[in-house]
């Protein structure tokens, strides 16, 4: 059975491999790729050095960038083919809730609540989970300058926030894949299995948890 999707979004904590999976599936399915433009956020390196001071400008810069992309994704010609993205717009508030103080969050929410109502809705969301040890190792291996200051405690906070968010998520069908013990970048069988679950398995209900077999 072939699931006919127009828009798939892949989500997960920093270092889990969402961008890598989006790129691999895009190539296999001849899809259109939409990637989060985090490298264009001028505040991000400063945020990892001084989280409290730069949280608000970092968050607002991401919000503006992501909303601009959402507007482009809603253009009438975009969904003539499958589109795969490495984020969903709603995830922006996970970071806001984690990093902003009460006054900043109130101001942020006044803008976010307007934007989220007119953002693109995925036909399927894939949430990649991983343990913090694996996330730390992935971040170490890709060795981005501004990510060297990410602490284990921050990753744990973020992982807990993501798990809480997706435990309650019901806006789109949701597939959860635990990636702690798999390598879909280097092991083609793992990627084959993920692709099979996404495109050839019927969706029953809102949440599917698929663990790659040995």
TrEMBL record:
User: Which segments of the protein form a coiled coil according to its record?
Assistant: none
According to the entry, what is the taxonomic lineage of the organism? Bacteria, Pseudomonadati, Balneolota, Balneolia, Balneolales
Keyword terms of this UniProt record: ATP-binding, Kinase, Nucleotide-binding, Transferase
Q: What CDD domains does the record point to?
A: dNK (cd01673)
What InterPro entries does the record point to? DCK/DGK, Deoxyribonucleoside_kinase, DNK_dom, P-loop_NTPase
Q: Which residues bind ATP?
A: 12-20
Which catalytic residues are annotated? 86 (proton acceptor)
**An annotated Gene Ontology molecular function:** deoxynucleoside kinase activity
Record-annotated Deoxynucleoside kinase domain positions? 8-201
Its GO CC terms are:
cytoplasm
Write down what this protein is called: Deoxynucleoside kinase
């Amino acid at each position: 059975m072939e699931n006919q999707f127009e828009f798939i979004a892949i989500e997960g904590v920093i270092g889990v491999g969402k961008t890598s999976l989006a790129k691999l599936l895009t190539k296999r399915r001849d899809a259109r790729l939409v990637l989060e433009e985090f490298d264009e956020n001028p505040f991000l390196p400063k945020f990892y050095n001084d989280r409290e001071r730069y949280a608000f400008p970092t968050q607002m810069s991401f919000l503006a960038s992501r909303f601009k992309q959402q507007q482009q994704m809603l253009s009438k010609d975009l969904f003539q083919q499958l589109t795969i993205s490495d984020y969903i717009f709603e995830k922006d508030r996970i970071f806001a809730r984690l990093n902003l103080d009460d006054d900043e969050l109130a101001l942020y929410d006044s803008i976010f609540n307007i934007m989220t109502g007119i953002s693109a809705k995925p036909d399927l969301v894939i949430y990649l989970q991983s343990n913090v040890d694996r996330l730390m190792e992935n971040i170490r291996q890709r060795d981005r300058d501004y990510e060297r200051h990410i602490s284990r405690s921050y990753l744990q906070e973020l992982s807990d926030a993501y798990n809480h968010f997706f435990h309650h998520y019901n806006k789109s069908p949701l597939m959860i894949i635990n990636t702690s013990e798999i390598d879909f970048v280097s092991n083609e069988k793992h990627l084959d299995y993920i692709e099979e679950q996404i495109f050839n398995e019927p969706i029953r209900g809102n949440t599917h948890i698929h663990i790659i077999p040995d």
